[in-house]
Amino acid sequence: MSCDVAVAAFLMFASAGDAQQARLILADAAAPASVAGEPLFHDIVLRAAGLKSQVETWRAGIGQAAGPVPLSGFEAFSARIGELSALDENGHKLLVSRGAADDLKCILHGIAQDLPAKLEAVKAAKTGHEEDLALRDIAYLLNDNVEVITAPPQPPA
Question: By C-alpha distance, which of 6, 116, 122 is closest to 73?
Fold first, then answer.
């Protein structure tokens, strides 16, 4: 039975009872539970937000520099990006083990793979512009990391 037929059947039978209760049951059944409050995912959000703040500080100091600008504390930042990447992958694996049907597991896996690559792009930058672009990409990934975890869960498409 397709999902549309199942929902239609549910609504037909639920219409015999309290309509508000039927809507609440359907909403609870359709949307996955939020993981934002779980310790692993909460830690990911806090780390990503802090790292994004550091990236924005660096980007403000690069300006129109001809060459790459030395980034104070970059080695520690690199280590924290590696830790965050590992946490994202752990979050992915946890969601897969739960049989999650939403996109969050895939997004976390992608971020886990992309963060180290963008970090390498920062290291390889030959100009201030290249460095800024690589940092901008890291900032986008970190922002995505926060937003996909804290966004209200959506039912599968």
Answer: 122
